[in-house]
Design goal:
With 155 residues, this protein is mostly helical. The chain contains 7 helices and no strands. α2 (38-56) crosses α3 and α3 crosses α4 (86-92).
Length: 155
């Protein structure tokens, strides 16, 4: 009574990628730094980044994205979904810097959920932007004209 069933991971057959959920389970067994809740955000950020890049460059179409492009989609999506609480939500999931996003992307690559080119490296995600600036600055009040003139009086 009360026996727990072991988690069974379905291994992909030849030329078949694992499902996203199976890939995440594999990632969690290999790297416990990030909770399972962080992984769908990264997948959605990749999709969002592809839409942003396609809209900006119609000729390019949907294709391979580099680290900074994925991070652009990540930042935009996190701000849209979580607003002024974005940084706090991300930090509860262990995401404190852009390199953390890269670790999850590369975990998903190693689990064969995402793919990469020969040029892609984890270093592509290192220090691309500061989380505090990216997620807090858009919600800081703008200085009023009076506050600006008090700091910089015209002589």
């Amino acid at each position: 009574a009360g026996k727990e069933c072991p988690v069974i991971l379905r291994l992909p057959t030849m030329n078949q990628r694992p499902s996203f959920d199976d890939g995440v389970q594999l990632c969690l067994t290999r790297d416990a730094r990030y909770p399972k809740e962080a992984y769908p955000l990264i997948r959605d950020a990749l999709d969002h980044a592809q839409k942003l890049v396609s809209a900006r460059d119609k000729r390019r179409g949907v294709g391979h994205l580099d680290g900074p492009e994925i991070l652009e989609g990540f930042r935009d999506l996190a701000l849209t979904q979580f607003g002024p609480l974005a940084r706090i939500v991300l930090e509860t999931w262990g995401l404190h810097a852009t390199i953390d996003v890269g670790h999850i992307v590369f975990n998903l690559i190693e689990a064969d959920v995402f793919s990469k080119s020969d040029r892609d490296q984890l270093a592509d995600f290192d220090n691309v932007f500061d989380f505090t600036e990216a997620f807090d600055a858009p919600y800081r009040p703008l200085p009023t004209a009076a506050a600006v003139s008090e700091r910089d009086p015209v002589r």
